[in-house]
Fold these 3 entries.
Entry 1:
Amino acid sequence: MTNLFSYAGKRVVLTGGATGIGAALAELLDELGVEHLTILDIKAPSGRCDTFIETNLADPASIDAAIAQIEGPIDVLFSNAGVAANAGVRTCMAVNVAASRRLTDGLIDRITKGGTIVYTASMAGNGWPAQVAEITELLEIADWDAFLDWCEAHPEVVNDVYAFSKMCMQVYVMRRSYSSIRNGIRINSICPAPVDTPLMADFKVSMGEDAINWAVGVQGNGRMAVATDIAPSLAFMGSDAAAFINGENLHVDSGLSSAMVTGLAFS
Ligand SMILES: NC(=O)c1ccc[n+]([C@@H]2O[C@H](COP(=O)([O-])OP(=O)(O)OC[C@H]3O[C@@H](n4cnc5c(N)ncnc54)[C@H](O)[C@@H]3O)[C@@H](O)[C@H]2O)c1
């Protein structure tokens, strides 16, 4: 019987595979039989990786050079790399949004029919409905520099830049998936709650420890997620088991988003 969760015969590209969620995903894809794994990262990965392309996702020339080096067809693109707000507005919006979009546009023609793109967004982007008009206006700016200039020129919109970057990704998934599925390619994201990875030190500085502790407390399971709690949902979204899922931002947050939407988190 076919194993819908298997990665046997699949060629995968992963950004941000050196540490945290991406490193856990690389290990899991290895266990799931991935045929070929290419990792794009600013740091070299230490786990499973067949081709490493050193890439600075804040630099469009570096992204284009990586796109040119990636060989063969691609079954799954995981656009996972991300930075926190203390990287600054330009870098945060470049790595978290503009790079994901540039990779998508640069690689989508090489993604096989039935293939898929999965982003690591965040439940920090759940507030998108209040800013959907501005986000839509921004996402219509195709040029890299003009996109980042818009972000710098609208501090009233982009004031919480990490959350805004993830709002943009949730909206991007819903919009981009509409056209991609017509070419047989699914587009989705997963949206974790706080995860204990190297990025957490930056979140504690930019969001404050109280906010992180509050979010973990609302989950009710008594602990913060670790990378191996999150990687399986990425692997699922990229697998054939998710073949009918498209345009979805999947919360992987132990109920935090539900508790916030219903108000139970504040009761
Ligand atoms: N940790 C959390 O609490 C949390 C929660 C929700 C979503 N996320 C998202 O999960 C994703 C993975 O983050 P993580 O928590 O595993 O953190 P992490 O810092 O462990 O991993 C980020 C990876 O991205 C790479 N990277 C950073 N800047 C880069 C650049 N300019 N060019 C190329 N690679 C770069 C890093 O080297 C690293 O391998 C991010 O998109 C993050 O926003 C994290």
Entry 2:
Amino acid sequence: MAAPPSDLKISQQARELHFRSIVVDTHVDTTQRLLEAGFDLGERHANGSVDIPRLRDGGISAVFFAIWVPGTVTGREAVKRALAQIEAVRREVSSHPDDLILARSAEEIRHARADGRIAILIGIEGGHMIDCNLDVLRGFASRGAAYMTLTHMRNTEWADASTDPPRHNGLSPLGKEVIAEMNRLGMIVDVSHVSDKAVLDVLETSEAAVFASHSSCRALCDSPRNLPDDLIRAIAAKGGLVHINFHVGFLSQEFIDFESAHPEIEREVEVEAKRRAGENGARELVEWDRIVREFAGEGKLPRVKWTLIIDHLRRAADIAGIDHVGFGSDFDGACMPFGMEDAAKFPRLTEALLREGLGESDIQKILGGNLLRLMEDVEAAAHRGKGSG
Ligand SMILES: [Zn+2]
């Protein structure tokens, strides 16, 4: 695919490498925006981070849209809303047939790419949406869900979250059944958001490699949402991946230290985001993203630069190896650092990796090659499972 014109200042080598590579972002929350009345992914928007023009500018070949309802919504209501969001993604894809195509496998991502279209994949962000029912899980898979994040911020009935007091000491027996069924379905198990003990239980239970779709390094920023070095190592040892999250509160220790010392600023951001979003709840995340950068510009919050993404990537790669890392931005669901405000800035990552001295083939692994390999491994494990059982 030829690179579109851009004012992004990067080297010719970086542009050329980036736009001939398969580039994957394993987590965006743009699905919430599809629920806004009148929102069209085909238009270039002045706010938020993702739309078709900016995915094109960013040379992104495949992107996972998260299906998400808050952990406070459970039972049949959560299932209903999740299904409605899956349909919203599918509708949006079919209304832009020249640009987008729904994909579920590595092969489909490659086809989309050869066809000049962006592959849209679906990830379920939170196991509460299956309502403890494996039939619901199978239904999600049949509607195209490629991965499921086992929890969101709260524990589910069968798995502990990293941001809730433990209730199951990791995974419950039902949690282990969920993993086995995901393996059988060829769905990738996503350990972002789950507790450290639950990650260990998953690694012991899963027949297939797993990944963290949007988590950074706890050694660099001490958030429970980030992964400690030993878990990064353990995920990689099983053939899995860690995809670095761009959220300022997961990248910057300075940022979270400042926030915990100044809870009043955090509250001010929250109130302002609510005010600007008005009745439109889906809009709140997008406003939050913008306000945090505005406040940083006014000196009310620390200024976080996008280059921290590369520091986290390097850390994870040093521990896990180049074959086990990638990017999962959290666009439209978190606060982006300066210089990585939207999907159009993605080529900067390639430029930075070249400057770090990485070879072109290693950079291509990080951008998407590793994820394609993981998908193929998960698919192969599903076939093996069917063969033996
Ligand atoms: Zn998340």
Entry 3:
Amino acid sequence: MPEEKPEARIYDRIAWRYDLLETPMEKMFFSRLRKELLSDLRGSVLEVGVGTGKNLPYYPPGVELTGIDISPRMLERASGRAGALGLEADLRVMDVEELEFDDQTFDFIVVTFVFCSTTDPVKGLRELGRVLKDAGTILMLEHVRSENRCLGALMDLFNPLVRRLFGPNINRRTEENVRAAGLEIVSTEKRGTEILRKIVARRAANPEKLV
Ligand SMILES: C[S@@+](CC[C@H](N)C(=O)[O-])C[C@H]1O[C@@H](n2cnc3c(N)ncnc32)[C@H](O)[C@@H]1O
């Protein structure tokens, strides 16, 4: 049996209080951003790190939704939420770093606040490139390390404590990781605060050139 990853342990432990912890940010920022991110989706959609299913209310009708998460406890909550919404979704426990899908399966991949938590973000992002169709799109909302030198250094300092208490890393350089995984960034926008990014990416025509 493979060894349990730290993120599975952390999120299993905090699943019961995750929605409660996030409520203020959700009300102030995130729910609006989720709605905007997901409003134009169609076809086959993979959501990675679906968590407690906070994006589920915002999927347009008719999408063929698959959701994965490494934490069974978080996924249980997503499943309850999908049931309450009457939404059909194929929800599975799976590691984004070892996706059990064929190459080029999905039209869209949705990721919100996940690559701050994974063990090896570049490996996971490479997997997204593999299972995304050639003409597919990756839509991400992520918080990242600040570009401000002092704030960035503070984020590095407090990262181990925040990771332990709340789950995520607060100092990930996600745009660099996206490029390192051989994906092409179509656009990246600061949303609300300097550290919150909406990133749109796709498979690179020639990944070697981008790295
Ligand atoms: C901060 S939560 C975000 C949940 C949800 N996407 C949201 O927007 O509320 C991060 C989620 O990513 C999941 N996760 C972390 N590492 C993962 C991995 N290697 N594979 C799949 N899911 C992972 C966690 O279990 C957790 O549910």
